[in-house]
Amino acid sequence: MKQWAGADEKLNFRDFKEDFSLESFTNCTDFNPIEIYAYYIGRCINNMHNGVFLKYFLSYPIKYEKHQAEKIRESFERGLKKSLPRHVFGDEKTAKTFKVELRASEPCAYAISALKSYGFFRSEKLDKPVYYGVFDFGGGTTDFDFGKWEKSANPKFLYKMTHFSSGGDNFLGGENLLELLAWEAYAKNFQELKEKDIVIAKPNYDRIDTQRFGSFMQNSREARLNLQEIASKLRPFLENLDANIIEAIEENEEFSIESFEKDFKTMLLDRNGVETECDLKVDCKELLNLLKDKINEGVANFFAGFSKVMAENIDDECRAFHIFLGWNASRSVLVKQAFENAKEKQLKDYNQKTSKDDFTFIIYEPLGTEKSDKQILELTGEDVSNTPAYLKPTCKTGVAFGLLESRDKAKGIERHSISSNPVFKYDLGIEIEGKFHAKIHRDSLKPNEYQIFQTKEEWGGFDELEIRYSDKALANTNTLNIQDMQLISIALEEHEEVDVKVCCVDSQSIKVGLFKDDQLIYESEVEKLW
């Protein structure tokens, strides 16, 4: 549902009886799954045993625009209201108490829980500001959030939380990686599966070669079910990798994972929907290297975001940067290994730039894990290993605990509220020698304010403009391969001796203007970047 609400596009579904379509979230007026979801949550929360609750706090994905987050709030408000007994709203005073409020983004809420759990609510830890980053590695996406935590100078609050910037990867997530592994397993067995007319669907990942399997890649029900079936066989492999298994795979030694076989039989569907038994062989080393590459890339993007934050926001007195790993997928040993490997290079680069030989990165385990409990004990002296689940934040429930902590209260947290749309999501550029070169950085684009993309000396008077774009933090380094970029072609009128400029309309839509002597002579249609 979060992906549907964020994508803002129409979807088609098939239930047990028939096909049906679901309007985009923005245009959804009748059947609203989020409202129904809120209704059932309300029925679970409000009952004879628990009583009735009238105040609700919501978190939201960091990349949502303001109108998307607000519509989610409205949907929850309607659903929750319908779940409550009617007589609750019969009393005017009680009815006014009912409130559904957007409080904090998901990574921001998790950061609050992590800061509290690891002892940063204690005054002795706040003699100087705490600079932090959250690596929120979930099932569908990875989000980054960078900020500063310190004592508040305002007597109404104890703490102040300053949000610097956010970022992430729209595809790096546990479930998406699982689909990518299934796609590669299909490739490994393609010749045998091709003979049985077994089709496959495109995984939910970027930079997929859609021509790789020709007509055997489809968007049909059979193809989707095949992708899901292969993925289900590979799930134990993805979820149970530990340091010993990884070492065994890399050294070509024997290993075992419960419920996983390197060679297995499974029932798949041909393009006509006929079930066929298939024998599949899996190259575990190949799959492991694929996982490492994708996670390493995500961590590299995180540190690219960190470098930008350091350059713009962090004072010279800062000697440590605190990294909080969040959500279930961050429990993977591959994530910790990627951070440990990357931080050495980052420290070396940062020391060369700033001459800070004593600077350090401190990585904090995902909340709720045994390693996290041990780390909390070492840092705070508090043993939380036996704390009841309903009182103990985890890498998943930490968002909920952080939301509660962010509520308005005496001596609470001073922070920025959701008051404006996110900045533009993409760097825009061109190809030079097979690399992406940014012409306009995302932070410089403002709604309806044109920025130069190509000068009249550079522009050839063509009838279309090719723009490469990326939402990855590494995009501003001019080192990314052009194959890793997205491409959009925008139709233009043919004019020579003009400056080509671009402006954003919202966080992911642009238009192109042609300017002669600083006068706009042509403006393209608005184009949305995906």
UniProtKB/TrEMBL annotation:
Originating species: Helicobacter pylori R036d
Q: Which InterPro entries match?
A: ATPase_NBD (IPR043129)
- Protein name per Swiss-Prot or TrEMBL: Dihydrolipoamide acetyltransferase
Top-level taxonomic group: Bacteria
Q: Which Gene3D superfamilies does the UniProt entry name for this protein?
A: 3.30.420.40, Actin, Chain A, domain 4
